[in-house]
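name: query_chain
kind: protein
chains: 1
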Amino acid sequence: MIFAYPLGLIGLLSLPAILALHLLQQRNRKVVVSSLFLWGFLEKQVHGARFRRIPFNLLLVLDLLIAALISTALAQPRLRLSLPFGTGVHQIFIIDTSTSMMARDASPSRFEVARQSILAQFDSSRFGDRLTVIEAGKQARLVGDTYLNTVEEILEAIQSLQAGSAGTALWEAVAFAEALRDPTLPYQIHIFSDGAWGITPLDDLNTSNVFWNWMGEAQPNQAVIDVSVIKNLASEWEVQALLANFDRQPVRRLIALQTQDQLIDSYEVQLPPRQVFPLFWKFEANSLSTVMVSLTGNDLLPQDDRAVTALTSANLSTALRVAVVANQPKEILKALNSFPEVEAQTFVVPDDLPPRGFDLVIYHQISPRVYTHPSILLLDPPSVDWLEIENQVPLNAWVASQASPLVENLDSSGLRGVKVSKISQSPEGFQTLLQTTDNPPKPIYIQGQHMGSQVWVFLAQISSGNFTRHPVFVALLGNLIRQIARPNFPANLKVGDPIPLPSFDQYPLLKIQPPKGEAISFGSNRPLEWSATHQPGIYRFELVDREGVGQTIAVGVNAGDWQESNLLDLQRNLPSNEKQPERQLLETQYFELTPWLLVLAVVLFLVEARYAWR
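structure:
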């Protein structure tokens, strides 16, 4: 027997304490007699306390047994048993889901062979085995564990895995496996990969427990690594593509340049061996939204035979339209000029402001009549029915009441002579972003929804003191502009890379159309980014803002990569076991005694309670 936590045996010190308590319970009994003269024969030296025998009875025995069982259970005892039928093994499977695993030199692909091998291991597992599956894609991710999921759930998760990520986080996956392994069971780490990765520090692996399962063989391959497009001063489109030949021999391939609706050019090119070959095109076109460069004909990895890029500026203006409604907008416009992406327009009265067409409307000392724009900033507003202004007090300093990008770098140090409007209470549904350091604190910067618009209210008087001359004024507007800026989608990226999604407040309706399959819609519970970009091609994003204006944005996802497309130089020189593990006829297993001891202690406690009650 061994103990996982020997310090738990300190609880055995309770045994003499229990014995002492039982001795104290044996006190002198009072007996009524006719006269003390009858006890005169007793000698004086035997009067008083005497040695008492331990009062062994059933209650004492039960108390001692219960204390001993609980103390031993705290030490977590384990019995080491040898079973003729073998013990459970913690089998950890790591599957490579990078782009190179989509190569078709194994039928139907390297990844599918690896998947079927893991499923076969599940079929041959025994009772008592713990099975864990880890995905090694761009990041290491737990797919399933039989201690956390049912076998059916894990099998379904394995079936849903897809190859197609830029990079293999193999070292992280092995470290993850070492952290998850069960210390009470012998363990084995099985890695299913093709070895198509860069320099990875795997020399310090514990090779006695790691078993490599190599998928496919070294093969030649050609790929389109990258494509980019610009418009020169002559209003011509310039396209540059990088082609790679991962072969020891020169290869002739047919190259094609296409836009969204027509073929621009196509010709045969000879790619030098083991080199990156650049190609250039120059042509005229009225407008472009997507450009694709592709190699015709198939090789073992057709996913990297083309690269696409999108021109987001062709269908989405990046300018942020801001309206300023104020009698004296000079200082506000001066601050807005610090942001080149802002197009500002001024209005004197709210009635002159059109009901739509602006991303942000700033009101200074004026209250809007209607709330039709998606974002509104009120600077030093007058008292209205939903926002009651009581009076104005000097501003000493402020602090952020919650972590928010809207209040980053807003330091009140150096403000002099600034006043702040005092309100009776914040409107219902509004949150406080900045508040004074007074006791009790007073809100300065609040945000919330009002009549369908996202409203920010800044109660400090920007015309008082040195506020507009202080850097905090520009920082205040800059944080808000970044919050409501239009989504910045990349022109192209690699498979598996995440795409940031705009917030629900900006675009309540969002739909993504992958190159294959059905469109995916997102509501208010959308994630910050979407990473299911395993298929190369064009991903189209359909967005509808709060005013009902729709837009379509294209993003190109490419599989061509120097690391993933190089199927010729596979990293298979790592130390490993020469043969697959075999189960021994006699294996050691640890049998946990803690739950059984606790159950026995509870049973004895019930017996003691019944005996004491009787």
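note: Residues 594-613 form the longest helix (20 residues).
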